[in-house]
UniProtKB/TrEMBL annotation:
Species in which this protein is naturally found: freshwater metagenome
Protein name per UniProt: Unannotated protein
Pfam families in the cross-refs: ACT_6
InterPro entries: ACT-like_dom_sf (IPR045865)
Amino acid sequence: MHERQLFRDKLCNLMEDLSEKSPVFTGLILLTGIDAPGIAQGLFHSLSDFAVQIDDVEQIVISGRLVLTVLITLNPAHQSAIEVDLAQYAQASETDIATIFSLQSLVKVEKSRVGVHVVSKKMHPKILSTLATGIVSVNGNIESITRTQSEPTGFLFVVTGTTQTLLTSTISSLEFEYDLETRVYEL
């Protein structure tokens, strides 16, 4: 047991030293199912015996359905064992888990991010289409969209690749068919 822990620690240290531009072996895990307390905890527990590094996590719950994605860096020799443990956890938790393993360079999190908060009594797809078109027109990339409130409905767009000033100017010049409140700010 002691030798296994030493090996795991050494592997973790090696993984930390990898250049961010060097390709590394990664696993993208997608878990879906009915939301319940302990689902994320169980997934992380399933991974905890392996010498992996968590590089990214996103979780959303919509109408009681959970979508959880986790990006890990790992030793390719552990792929099969991780897949077995994840399959066991999927069965025990009554969730679905899909994985994709590949060699890739990790992408840094953009330091400059802008929030675009929109609120409307009627959040029609035309509103979101017009807003997304405006964001793209200034080379903005929508990294995430999250609901912030109900009645009226509000969404927060997290945008990279552009500036608050440029987005504020662009969004204020857009024409929307429905009443809409917008706020643009640095995150």
